[in-house]
Amino acid sequence: MKNKYIDYIILAIFVIAITYFKFNYHELWKDEWQAWFVAKDKSLTEVFSFLYYEGHPALWYIYLKIFTFFSSLARPEYIIHFAHTITVAAGLYFLFVKFRLPTIVKVLLALSYFVFFEYGIVNRGYFLVILFAFWAASLLKKEDYSRVQLGVVLFLLCQTEVYGALMAIALGFYVMMKEKNIFTALQGKDIIGLAAGLLFFVISVFPRSSGHVSKTSAKKLEFMDKILTSFQGNLSNTYAIGSTNDTFTYGWTSIGLLISMLCLTGIGFVFYKNKILLKTFLMFLAMMIAFSVLFFLGGIRQWGMGFIFFIALLEIRGLDIKKELLPTLVISVFAIFNIVHNGKAVVEEKNIPFTNAELAGQFIKEKIPEKVPIVAINKFEATPVIGYARRSFYELPDGVPFSYFRWVDKIYLPVENELKLFAKFKGVGGIVVLSPKPLDVDRFPSLQLWQKWEDKNYKNENYYLYTLALSGAREQKPVTPLE
């Protein structure tokens, strides 16, 4: 009982620490706002029909939908923080209370970059993956686990992220490998739950056209380059993060591949006594690489899912520090790389704004009346500004208000006459134009730069605000409330 109290105390400390950094220092990026707007501005039916543009299953959006009903009670960013913190607390509950790993190992793993920062502080659906992957691991650790419960958990895991679905497949493989009769295993309620989860995942998420796949693949690399990039990203950028440059940005290197082989050797050493677990991990790694090659290359955020799966399998395996010094050393090395990188990320989060979106949004909220239309040149970059400004912007050529975007949409750059026609259509003396880059004065000679945000920020995302007054309007800057 004493150890349980310690587990709960450590759990509370981590939840408080993550919550503190979320509420005080974390600026929501476009990915975080996007999910919120999709959940808030669409019905459940529309959400499901929109998922294949997102490339994410439904669970995170359905979960956020519940919290959108409280939008009037607090600032939306606070509601998003709060909603995500609940998933963090639930996932860490399994790690600290349900898992039987040594406490020091659990603390080291919880301090990792992926658990603490990338998935803990950043408000995305990835912590739902952690929650259900850890839940499944805590069940599989038992000999007499509930197959019905595991089936439900695997079904939900399939609805978290693509990588959650890959974990569910690998865990289903583990269940079948543990059974002496594979036909008996296939009839189990856990495998039936997995099959139902995969079916629902495919129906709701899988892209409807090859064009969508090609537009979301992000990088045009040769086949072998994709394999090597994914191999290095899923290993050195995950288990020895910080030892090499970001593979997505700089590509694979010889030293990166060497470190990746060392990481894979270390993982093999940790699991070599349990051949089924080793095969399960290798199957998951193979699926991650295949997904990168065929669909979406990914980056550190996606590749870090492998570290989460490693923790889940480690719980199923078990660890005795006193009797297994070398496996403990390997795990500790992985954790140390992650902890150092996490420390750097937290310091940067505290000292450097993520983007200039919050500053731009607050300025718009304070200075521009609601009746003045704001046209966004780039919907993708405008979404976080919309979140902090707490109002919709307009897009051209359609001239309709928007809050979220579709990843496959092309960026439309209007001409000045279109902006003037839109202002006339809205019946106002002028409009405001938001752009993530300075606009060409030759293309937009009548636009006047009103405000710009170019302060140092982590993502190098700046914003420029222009005014456009119609000919004959009394004021050159009709949107400025002080004039």
Structure description:
With 483 residues, the chain is mainly alpha-helical. The protein has 2 domains: 350 residues, no CATH class; 113 residues, no CATH class. Helix content is 63%, strand content 6%. It is built from 23 helices and 6 strands. The radius of gyration is 24 Å and the shape is elongated.
Concise synopsis of the structure shown:
By secondary structure, this protein is mainly alpha-helical. It folds into two domains: 350 residues, no CATH class; 113 residues, no CATH class.
Structural class: mainly alpha
Note the run of SSEs as H and E.
HHHHHHHHHHHHHHHHHHHHHEHEEHEEE
Low-confidence region ranges: 209-216, 473-483
* Helix-residue proportion: 55-70%
Q: How big is the Rg?
A: 24 Å
Classify the beta-strand content into a percent band.
5-15%
Feature tags:
483 residues, mainly alpha, 2 domains, two-stranded antiparallel sheet, disordered C terminus
Could you give the topology of this structure?
Elements: H1 2-25, H2 30-41, H3 44-54, H4 59-68, H5 76-98, H6 103-110, H7 113-121, H8 126-140, H9 147-158, H10 162-178, H11 182-186, H12 189-205, H13 210-216, H14 223-239, H15 247-250, H16 254-271, H17 275-294, H18 300-303, H19 305-317, H20 325-351, H21 357-367, E1 374-376, H22 379-389, E2 393-395, E3 400-402, H23 416-426, E4 430-435, E5 448-453, E6 463-469
Parallel strand pairs: 1-4
Antiparallel strand pairs: 2-3, 4-6, 5-6
